[in-house]
Amino acid sequence: MAAETHSNPAWRDQDRSRPRGARLAVLAARQHGVVAHRQLIALGLSASAIGRRAQTGSLHRVHRAVYAVGHRRPTEEGRAMAAVLSGGGSTVLGHVSAAALRGWLPAVRGPMHIIEPRSRIGDRGLRVHVSLLREDERALHDGIPITEAMRTLVDLASVLSSHRLQRAADLAGVAQPDRRRRLERLAQRHRGRRGITRLRSILAAAERDAAVTRSVMEDRLVAAQLCALLDPADRNRI
Predict the structure, then answer these.
(1) Higher pLDDT, 83 or 18
(2) 3-state helix, strand, coil in the chain (%, to 5)
(3) Looking at the predicted structure, is the pLDDT value of residue 223 above 60?
(4) Which of 12, 18, 127, 226 has its CA at a distance of 20 to 30 angstroms from the CA of residue 117?
(5) Smallest Cα–Cα separation from 153: which of 119, 108, 200?
(6) Cβ neighbours for 237, distance < 8 A, ≥ 6 positions apart
(7) pLDDT tens digits for 103-124?
């Protein structure tokens, strides 16, 4: 996976000749309108300067040490990015929040779900899940660190109804052979977790549907090949 946005040093490479406010605006634009306290410090703002900006309304606290720049209500992408920025460099958006960001579920109005390698005291508006994600279980979605699509399904399997899980799987593209293989590997990796049996049932059904589709396509191909061998007059009688 590409380096995560909140730990990527690229935002530090801005032209230092630019005014600090301009550099802050560029950083906020890259991160859906939100920034972390540590990033503000890296831009050259002191803790007292950050406090003054928060008091005057140019910064609005979203989570502990995370601010929206110039507005009180971040977009859904901004809420997701703020949740990720609340943690360390290994934090990613996960579970139903990851599914909502991908458009598989309605936008989450409750706490944002994030995944971290270690437990910590929770922040208001966050639900922290503790898990050691492998590198292939991480991804970026619109610049936001998030669980990889098939890993998101693994997490959803433990909380969604069978109907909603099937819909999420359809939207995730499990009909595609490469995604089915990927999900099968993850189901094996996370065997024993709640919901994995239901995921395997979805995979089996998708494989059966694919087999039927292949059979129909093969029959059509054979019919087309036979038709090509016939005289034009005979083709019109078929």
Answers:
(1) 83
(2) 50, 15, 35
(3) no
(4) 12
(5) 200
(6) none
(7) 999 987 899 999 999 888 778 8
Residue located via tokens 């290994």 = 90
Per-residue model confidence as pLDDT tens digits over 178-213: 999 999 999 999 999 999 999 999 999 988 866 555
Q: What pTM value is reported for the model?
A: 0.80
1 token code pair: 């996976």
Contacts of 66 (CB under 8 A, 6+ apart): 34, 35, 36, 37, 82, 85, 86
Tokens of 81: 């990015």
* Cβ atoms of residues 11 and 30 within 8 Å: yes
Tell me how far apart the alpha carbons of residues 2 and 144 are, in angstroms, rounded to a whole number: 11
Which of 112-119's residues contact partners 24+ apart within 8 Å by CB, and which partners? 112/79, 112/80, 112/82, 112/83, 113/83, 114/83, 114/84, 114/86, 114/87, 115/91, 115/147, 116/87, 116/88, 116/90, 116/91, 117/90
R_g of the chain, CA atoms, integer Å = 24
Helix (H, G, I), strand (E, B) or coil at 133: coil
Helices in the chain by DSSP H: which ranges? 20-30, 37-42, 47-56, 76-85, 95-101, 149-156, 162-172, 177-189, 196-229, 232-237
65-78 mean pLDDT = 93
